[in-house]
Amino acid sequence: MAGVEGLVLTSWPFFRVISIEQWPPNTWRRLPWATGKHQLTETYAWFLAGWASRLSWKEVAETFRTTWDHVFSSVEMAVAWGRAHQDLSAIEAIDVDEIVWQRGHRF
Questions:
Q1: Given this model, what pLDDT does residue 45 score?
Q2: pLDDT digit string (tens) for 42-79?
Q3: pLDDT reported for residue 94
Q4: Cα-only R_g, the chain
Q5: CA distance 27 to 86
Q6: Which of 10, 16, 73, 80 is 20 to 30 Å from 92 by CA-CA measure?
Q7: Could you tell me the end-to-end alpha-carbon distance of the chain, in angstroms, rounded to an integer?
Q8: How far apart (Å, rounded) are the C-alpha atoms in residues 45 and 29?
Q9: Any residues with CB less than 8 A from the CB of 27 and at least 6 apart, and which?
């Protein structure tokens, strides 16, 4: 394979550069499609999370021949990303439902 002979995969998702001229030797580069020690690529995790919002997690796992745990970690990743990027600065007040208040619920 052309262009691959200079790479050696040693610690997923990082690879060690051995003999590529534009990078110094023995440096580590991050693979852009993986995060940490996750077994799924980021694109596939987003794909599973999108389907998990439409189907049950079990159905998603069976349909795409993966495990329930992979679907769970994909949804967990999507929720963590959403929580980190939410903007609550425009919220000025939170209302309480009067009917629920009359039923005795206290917040």
A1: 93
A2: 889 999 999 999 999 999 999 999 999 999 999 999 99
A3: 78
A4: 22
A5: 36
A6: 80
A7: 64
A8: 21
A9: 16, 17
Number of H helices, E strands in the chain: 4, 3
Dist CA 71 CA 47 (whole Å): 10
Q: What is the DSSP letter of 5?
A: T
Residue type, 50: G
CB 18 within 8 A of CB 4: no
Query: For residue 22, which amino acid is it?
Result: Q
Contact 30, 52 (CB under 8 A): no
CA angle 8, 32, 46 (to 5 degrees): 130
64, 55 contact by CB (below 8 A) = no
Where do we find the tokens 């052309």? 2
Q: Report CA-CA distances (Å) from 78 to 2, 26, 50, 81, 83.
A: 35, 34, 9, 5, 9
What's the gap between Cα 73 and its chain centre? 7
